[in-house]
Amino acid sequence: MEKRSDIASASCDKEILEHTEIAAVPLVPEIRLRLLRQRSPLWASFGDGPEAPSVPRPYWAFGWSGGQASARYLLDHPELVRSKWVLDFGAGCGISSIAAALASARRVTASDIDPLAIAAVGLNARLNQVAVDTLCSDLIYTENPGWEVVLGGDIWYDSRLSRHGQNWLRSLAGAGVLILIGDPGRQYSPSEGLEVLAEYSCWSVPDVEHPNLQKVSVYRLLGDPGFRPGPNTRFS
Q1: Would you say 86 and 151 are in contact if contact means Cβ atoms under 8 Å apart?
Q2: Residue 22 dihedral angles phi and psi, to the nearest 5°
Q3: What is the reported pLDDT for 213?
Q4: CA contacts within 13 A on the Cβ side of 174
Q5: Partners of residue 116 on adjacent β-strands
Q6: Total-model pTM
Q7: What domains appear along the chain, each with residue ranges and CATH number?
Q8: DSSP H or E segment with residue 73
Q9: The dihedral of CA 158, 11, 42, 132: what is its sign?
Q10: What's the confidence (pLDDT) of residue 3?
Q11: DSSP character for 222?
Q12: For residue 86, which of 36, 41, 53, 102 sits 20 to 30 Å off, Cα-Cα?
């Protein structure tokens, strides 16, 4: 009998294949991804029609500019991840995970809270012939099992991630983990406690962004070694 997890995975794969097509992104043309096809009904989720609230937005089907920037920087600076265990936090389509694998990371783990994103990472990793572990979980405030580098591509899109995600990542940085963020400057992006490493001009694919988000930075998030979540730490 087929296991429920296998059935769910096959269902996710089927949905992704139905709504995407293989394409490249401008900043990292050497990586191919399954991205939202032009005539997919999932586009309704970005509209203002009555059906929009009932259609989940397929964030996993976009090559967001922040992820592109992270991937480009890793491919140009492979020494940062070579022979290291890398976590791609909020992996989305997995472009940063794939770049880390191509840059000879010892192990790459892609995490996301969306099962469709996890399935998309798996499909995209196979498309690029690299090995990426996947983890469908909210990792904020979890203990570090051994990650040496943590990547975040375009992750500051809500207040919870800005508060708790940033606290957690800064605590990891304070413990010696290299935290690399690709960021187009969203509403909740930090403006302090970071070291800018590179800047790029690019757009998300497919492009649903405001033109002001086409300038993307890659920076190292600086640490807060004094932060430790306590038993009463709230995650929401």
Answers
A1: yes
A2: -80, 130
A3: 79
A4: 13
A5: none
A6: 0.90
A7: 4-221 (3.40.50.150)
A8: helix 65-76
A9: positive
A10: 44
A11: P
A12: 36
Distance CA 184, CA 146 (A): 28
- Least Cα distance to 98 among 118, 126, 79 occurs for 126
With beta carbons less than 8 A apart as the criterion, state whether 102 and 130 touch: yes
Angle between the N-to-C axes of helices 115-127 and 4-19, in degrees from 0 to 180, rounded to the nearest 10? 70
Virtual CA dihedral for 197, 198, 204, 205, nearest 10 degrees?
-110
DSSP 111-173: EES-HHHHHHHHHHHHHTT---EEEES--TTPPPSS-SEEEEES--SSHHIIIIIHHHHHHHH
Decide if 156 contacts 133 (C-beta within 8 A). no
Tokens 């397929």 found at: 58
Element (H, E) at 71: helix 65-76
Hey, what are 62's tokens? 């976009």
Q: What is the pLDDT of residue 212?
A: 77
